[in-house]
C-alpha cells in the first residue's frame, strides 16, 4: 500500500494549528510548532491562501482560517469571477461558431446561466443571464453533472421537455459516464425541439469542475448530415473550456 502524502499531512497540520488560534499565527510560529523551515511553511500557506482556505490579516504577518474553509460544501468560486474569466473566450467562441454561447454553473440542482453571448446575427434574441436550465436536459448541465462525485446535484425527478428528454435515471447515468469518457456533452432536442447543443466542463484549481461553457443552435448547424455533433464545433468548445479553466487556475 502506498504511504501518506507528506505535503498533505503538513497542510492538515497547519490548518489544525490555525483552527486553534483565532487571532492567527505567523510563519515563524507555525514553523516552530511543526519543526519546519520557514520557506516550507510559507509555501504551504501560499497554496492554502490560493485555494481560499486561509487569509492574511491587515499587516500580512499573520494567517488565519478563512470563512470559506467553514463552507467546504459550497462552491468556492464566485459566479462573478467565473463570468469575468469567461467573457473574452465565450465571445470569441460565439464569433467563430456563429451560435449562442452560454456559461453556467450548478446551483441547488439547476444550471444558472452566468454569461450569455448572443448569436452574431441580426435576429431578435433575449438575454439569458440569471435564468435556470434543467441540468439533465441540456449539454451545459450534463457537462457539470458528469463530474459531480457526490451525486448530490443530480435532480431527483427528471422532468420531460420533449420526446427526446432523458427521464430514466439509469439512462442518464450511462449518458454521464459517456460524457466523462469523451470530455464533452451533447444535446439533441432534449430541452427544445429543433435545437442541439455542445458543452464542456470548466476545471478550476485542482481539476475541480466549477462550471461549463457551451453553444446551442439549430440542429442543421450543430450536427452533420448523419445527425452527429460537428467535430469542429466540439473542438472549439473544448478549447474554450480549457482556456477559461487555465485563466482561473493561473489567476487565483
UniProtKB/TrEMBL annotation:
<feature type="domain" description="IclR-ED">
    <location>
        <begin position="68"/>
        <end position="250"/>
    </location>
</feature>
<keyword id="KW-0238">DNA-binding</keyword>
<dbReference type="InterPro" id="IPR036388">
    <property type="entry name" value="WH-like_DNA-bd_sf"/>
</dbReference>
<dbReference type="Pfam" id="PF01614">
    <property type="entry name" value="IclR_C"/>
</dbReference>
<feature type="domain" description="HTH iclR-type">
    <location>
        <begin position="5"/>
        <end position="67"/>
    </location>
</feature>
<dbReference type="InterPro" id="IPR050707">
    <property type="entry name" value="HTH_MetabolicPath_Reg"/>
</dbReference>
<dbReference type="InterPro" id="IPR036390">
    <property type="entry name" value="WH_DNA-bd_sf"/>
</dbReference>
<keyword id="KW-0805">Transcription regulation</keyword>
<dbReference type="InterPro" id="IPR014757">
    <property type="entry name" value="Tscrpt_reg_IclR_C"/>
</dbReference>
<dbReference type="InterPro" id="IPR029016">
    <property type="entry name" value="GAF-like_dom_sf"/>
</dbReference>
<protein>
    <submittedName>
        <fullName>IclR family transcriptional regulator</fullName>
    </submittedName>
</protein>
<dbReference type="Pfam" id="PF09339">
    <property type="entry name" value="HTH_IclR"/>
</dbReference>
<dbReference type="InterPro" id="IPR005471">
    <property type="entry name" value="Tscrpt_reg_IclR_N"/>
</dbReference>
<keyword id="KW-0804">Transcription</keyword>
Amino acid at each position: 500500500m502506498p504511504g501518506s502524502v507528506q505535503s498533505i499531512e503538513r497542510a492538515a497540520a497547519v490548518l489544525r494549528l490555525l483552527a486553534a488560534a483565532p487571532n492567527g499565527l505567523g510563519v515563524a510560529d507555525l514553523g516552530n510548532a511543526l519543526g519546519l523551515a520557514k520557506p516550507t511553511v510559507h509555501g504551504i500557506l501560499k497554496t492554502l491562501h490560493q485555494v481560499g482556505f486561509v487569509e492574511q490579516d491587515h499587516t500580512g504577518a499573520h494567517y488565519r482560517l478563512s470563512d470559506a474553509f467553514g463552507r467546504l460544501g459550497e462552491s468556492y468560486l464566485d459566479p462573478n469571477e467565473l463570468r469575468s474569466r469567461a467573457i473574452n473566450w465565450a465571445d470569441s467562441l460565439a464569433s467563430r461558431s456563429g451560435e449562442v454561447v452560454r456559461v453556467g454553473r450548478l446551483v441547488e440542482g439547476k444550471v444558472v446561466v452566468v454569461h450569455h453571448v448572443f448569436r452574431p446575427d441580426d435576429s431578435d434574441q433575449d438575454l439569458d443571464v440569471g435564468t435556470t436550465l434543467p441540468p439533465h436536459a441540456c449539454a451545459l448541465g450534463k457537462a457539470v453533472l458528469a463530474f459531480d462525485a457526490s451525486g448530490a446535484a443530480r435532480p431527483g425527478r427528471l422532468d420531460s421537455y420533449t420526446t427526446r428528454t432523458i427521464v430514466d435515471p439509469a439512462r442518464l447515468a450511462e449518458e454521464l459516464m459517456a460524457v466523462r469518457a469523451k470530455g464533452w456533452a451533447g444535446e439533441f432536442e432534449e430541452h427544445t425541439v429543433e435545437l442541439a447543443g455542445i458543452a464542456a466542463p470548466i476545471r478550476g484549481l485542482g481539476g475541480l469542475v466549477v462550471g461549463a461553457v457551451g453553444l446551442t443552435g439549430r440542429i442543421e448547424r450543430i450536427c452533420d448530415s448523419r445527425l452527429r455533433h460537428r467535430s469542429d464545433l466540439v473542438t472549439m468548445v473544448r478549447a474554450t473550456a480549457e482556456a477559461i479553466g487555465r485563466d482561473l487556475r493561473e489567476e487565483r
